[in-house]
Amino acid sequence: TPTPPPGPLSDSGTKLVNDDLHPYIAPGENDIRGPCPALNALASHGYINRNGIANPAEIITAVMEGFNMDHGVAVYTTYAAFIVDGNLITNLLSIGEKTSLTGRSSSGTTAGGLNTHNTFEGDSSITRMDAYFGDNHNFNEKLFQEFIEYSNKYGGGKYNLSVACEFRRKRFQDSIATNPEFTIVAPRFYTAYADAVLPINLWVDGRQDDGQLDIEAARTFFEGGRFPPDFHRAARPMGANNEMVVFEAHPIEPGSNVKGVNTYTPDHSTPQKLDDLCVQYTFHVENTVRKMYPNPEGPLLESLKINLGYLFSAVKDKGCEELFPYGR
Ligand code: HEM
Ligand code: MG
Question: Of 28, 86, 117, 212, which has fewest CB within 10 angstroms of its CB?
Fold first, then answer.
């Protein structure tokens, strides 16, 4: 059964998080890792189960404790992903591929894991290829070399907000030009900008706290899926701060390549509203979730209602209206 999300951290300053209680242990053969380098690191340091399977409350606690992710952002992101990629009956999510470790798949719940393409994971990632090219979750060295090139060109050798603005645009343009199935609609339209700034906000050591991520630390997170030696989490809770700066530098419209490469066509069904979490919440519930679960019954129905309530708890204080697509 679902457990309620934890509250915010009581002590939310910087501190050593790569500590003796959380040593890095490389994933074993049966341990699952996926497209989110941060969750990979939390698993490999034991902030969540090292096998890469966790429930939403555990993930929220881990991203706050290990990275100082803002409580509201942590709750929203975790439930938005869990509801579409998790096993709603067993309350478990795979941070990578679909696996029987999250429980029976015959229970009517999708339980695809975070690798599932276009439920939450999506195109034009920073260091992972588009699913069209065959692997949407492993680190890709060629992409990281481009990341370094841009960090040298626009950031004086660091990954910072100026680099994020240019590299975000480049990754969209690359996908438009090379991926006939490129699509960037909700929820990926929203997460693509967040992902560009999270490394600036949450991977710069909290004692440094200057928004300048060095390339070696970036590689340790993106490729290694681990904390740098002596890593101290961010100085204060952070989320997708400054994503609007990245968006406004080179705004794009949600859309897709509709007839092969270079046929990018805006799709106005996804609201182009990065700064309005109520709109994103409403779209997720009414479109993404309802499409996935049009007629849930029994325990699945009960779980959906409860987990949608937890999702809403993250946007409640933004004045959003709660939605009950499956009744109260
Ligand atoms: C990417 C899930 C927390 C940093 C992703 C992706 C997923 C995901 C599914 C793949 C998106 C894509 O690139 O197509 C989650 C969930 C979280 C979470 C459910 C729970 C709160 C975090 C935190 C950080 C983070 C705390 C930073 C400390 C990133 C970055 C990427 C990413 C930088 C982009 C990777 C790339 O494009 O190469 N996340 N994430 N995430 N996540 Fe997370
Ligand atoms: Mg991706």
Answer: 28
